[in-house]
Design brief:
The protein has 109 residues and is mostly beta strands. Helix content is 8%, strand content 24%. It is extended, with a radius of gyration of 22 Å.
Amino acid sequence: MAEFEWKPLSPDSLDQVVDVSGIGATRKHPQPISQFDIELTLAKRRIPRMRGPETRNWRMNESLLTDDAFLPKTYTVRLEKGNFLSSHDAMLPKENQYTPRTRAEDQTQ
């Protein structure tokens, strides 16, 4: 279990309002909506217990990782509108990625 601290490098990017209703996108041609950078830092503190197993006796991240793991890292977040395959669908052969639809009258014959 890990807890991360994050913050946008440009806080005004989170105030941006995007109207996606006018953006047409397909599987082959997704359309970019927004892009911004965030800083992500792995925290050393214990995650508060909510549901699930008791974690009090578990080894914490700092006992398993080097100090570099806890340094801030910058990532670029890119939002796109489109139709995307799930990770499961992407593993299927291309001819099986789409399930053909049949009409009810075709099934009665």
